[in-house]
């Protein structure tokens, strides 16, 4: 389906598909991402049980370790994206990240195979695996999807938007499939065949992921890194500091601000207006306006262009969004959901199939998929009549609503945990409570 739609778009665009890039390069890129996600999700979602049973860490210590690992892995894409965009290019960074992920999983698998590697304080294999996987995440996560979009950079602009829409839909759909496979098939293997096999499966998938990406090397469009955007933001910051004493005009109008010739954006916006001093012509004593709008004073770094100032403003505006989602990530933390699910009656159907505790994360993905699929079709049209917004809610309203609803699950879990603690108080006082490990079913030998 996706192949035919993209092929149709390519045919209508009037370009030939015999060169590099295009749809024929996508299977290698998407398969790399799918296999990497299956390996990563399958290893991560159930790993607190591995640390608890094989490394003898209590749940609090195991959860803290996994949280730190996840935090480092989520911050690593920032320097990874900078390195890819400014220096190495996306192909090199994705390839290096895939190999680093593979090395990390090999270290973790070796910790299950080498006698004496698991009990503390012998955690070198485990920590080395975490380190390599975080490095790999910094390479793969920020660049994989963008690298796939690069494969259509030589297509006609009027058709490129349609092709990219199909590509993004296929990409995100494949991520959902990868997550579902990870929390069902991989977790089932870990529960029923032990950790040696359960970690060997993600290791094999990561090997296939790296191999598939490298096999398609000859088909890719490999754009080199460029420091223009980051240099422009840095120049805008420097110019704003240098010209901080300048007086802004009462009204923002053309002819006052420096811009390049034939640039559509000739005046900066009024948001964060203080930064407009960075591109204001009168802020330099030697600055003289030329016919094409260039300024002599810009060559020595005293001025930057309107485009560079707007890039800086865009970067500043998105900064508050990042810390606001930290608490949502905490609310969606699934590390302690696995041991909580251990206490539940997980039998399903007449045959009494016992659902793996790590597979409960499947409900998160199912809920997000249902919401994403129904929003444009049913929810947005209903909200449009109330808000007047064609999209129903603005992006900020949707983010704010998500943060608000994200406070519900931890409150509900805390309420349930409080009730269970209160119910178990009498048996704790009498010393008759059975340990949680004795109530669980036999699980996962090494």
**Alpha-carbon Rg, integer:** 27 Å
The CATH class label of the largest domain is Mainly Alpha
Number of helices: 20
Question: CATH superfamily assignment of the largest domain?
Answer: MFS general substrate transporter like domains
Question: How is the largest sheet built, in terms of strand order?
Answer: 1-2
Describe this entry's structure for a reader.
- By secondary structure, the chain is mostly helical.
- It folds into three domains: 2-219, Growth Hormone, Chain: A, CATH 1.20.1250; 228-317, no CATH class; 323-439, no CATH class.
- It has helices at 2-13, 26-44, 47-54, 59-75, 77-88, 90-113, 124-140, 144-150, 157-193, 195-215, 228-242, 306-318, 321-324, 326-331, 337-342, 362-387, 395-405, 408-423, 425-430, 436-439, and strands spanning 347-348, 353-354.
- It has a two-stranded antiparallel ribbon.
- A hairpin with a 4-residue loop joins strand 1 (347-348) and strand 2 (353-354).
- Helix 2 runs parallel beside helix 9, helix 5 packs across helix 6 (90-113) and helix 5 (77-88) packs across helix 7 (124-140).
- The longest helix is centred in the middle third of the chain and has 37 residues, at 157-193.
- It is globular and about 80 Å long.
Main attributes of the structure:
disordered C terminus, Growth Hormone, Chain: A, disordered N terminus, 446 residues, mainly alpha, 63% helix, 2 strands, globular, 3 domains
